[in-house]
Write a structure and sequence with these properties.
Elements: H1 5-10, E1 18-23, E2 29-35, E3 48-54, E4 60-68, E5 71-73, E6 84-88, H2 92-97, E7 107-111, E8 116-117, E9 120-125, E10 139-140, E11 143-149, H3 158-161, E12 165-172, E13 175-176, H4 177-182, E14 201-209, E15 220-225, E16 228-234, H5 242-249, E17 260-262, E18 284-289, E19 293-301, E20 309-310, E21 314-315
């Protein structure tokens, strides 16, 4: 059998570094390995990617077929994720600024997969979260390291934990302190209603593999609001590191491929400040980590009565 060189090159397998999912100029959705722009490791600035064929959680091939990125989506379709686990107060300075006792064990809460959203887009603030009478809309920012699980984990040890990780991303844990704290009931806080709205978990821009990030505990992490740096820390200051969290969350509870863990935010948020400046309609929040890229979100008031969530695309934008 004669094999043409062009066909051989098209199917040539190379190691993936940054898994991205995107719509190309032909209108189709692709998974690819981001081609980085010169001088950056931020896939949110990539304009093209090598197409990946197969399952990134199993067997796949990175081809030499290159497609333009016209719309960057979250690195996985939301329907691929069974659970979104989140960690509260995982940096000592953040716990202290919020006047919370430093926890002895990780604080776990969940977001629904309907909260998952692309790395660049709108964060919807629907009517129930807007200022009404004496109730203030207390929208806040939280920059976080996101962990993506690669294979099932159940009662695994800390030493085994990173073998169950596919890679890492940046994430914005959108938070409304009014519903989390003021209307949280007792005991406070009540996370879910202040964390779980559609589109309140932007993440990406890529899943960066462990080959690129062998140690997730030495990454700088930041958040900016309208270009001003509000959070600036390092994942070295996490109370519970990635391996600890993956092991702990597998205690009697199965972690599955595609599950996501938001690992907590450092200090610098508005929660706990004497005179907090809450986010308002039009504010731009940028979160990111060293080597993982950035997510840029615009706070957007909405009076929508129809959902803009899609199980393939994620949150698709504010409907008025």
């Amino acid at each position: 059998m004669r094999v043409f060189p062009a066909v051989l090159a098209l199917a040539m397998s190379v190691s993936a570094e940054r898994f991205v999912r995107f719509i190309s100029d032909d209108g189709q959705i692709y998974t690819g390995d981001a081609i980085l722009s010169d001088g950056t490791t931020d896939a949110s600035k990539s304009t093209s990617a090598r197409v990946i064929q197969g399952d990134i959680f199993g067997n796949f091939t990175v081809t030499q077929e290159i497609k333009n990125i016209t719309t960057l989506l979250a690195p996985m379709a939301p329907e691929k994720t069974r659970t979104v686990r989140c960690v509260g107060f995982n940096y000592a300075a953040h716990a202290e600024e919020a006047n919370i006792t430093i926890p002895d064990f990780p604080i776990l809460f969940f977001k629904p997969w309907t909260a998952l959203a692309p790395p660049n887009g709108q964060v919807p603030v629907t009517e129930g979260y807007q200022t009404q009478g004496n109730f203030t809309s207390e929208m806040d920012y939280e920059s976080e390291l996101v962990v993506v699980i690669s294979k099932a984990a159940y009662n695994i040890t800390v030493d085994q934990a990173l073998d169950h990780v596919l890679g890492y991303a940046s994430g914005y844990d959108v938070s409304h302190r009014g519903w989390q704290i003021d209307r949280g009931g007792l005991p406070q806080p009540q996370f879910s209603m202040g964390k779980d709205a559609d589109g309140w978990a932007p993440w990406g821009p890529a899943i960066v593999t462990k080959d690129i990030i062998p140690n997730p505990q030495n990454l700088s992490i930041f958040a900016k609001v309208n270009g001003v740096t509000m959070q600036n820390d390092t994942t070295a200051n996490m109370l519970f590191g990635v391996a600890d969290l993956v092991s702990f969350f597998s205690m009697g509870i199965t972690l599955l491929p595609g599950d996501i863990i938001y690992t907590g935010t450092p200090s610098g948020v508005q929660l706990g400040k004497a005179d907090p400046v809450w986010l308002v309609d039009g504010d731009v929040v940028e979160v990111g980590l060293e080597g993982l890229g950035t997510c840029t979100s615009t706070i957007t008031d909405s009076n929508a009565t129809e959902s803009a969530f899609d199980p393939i695309l994620g949150f698709t934008g504010v409907k008025q």
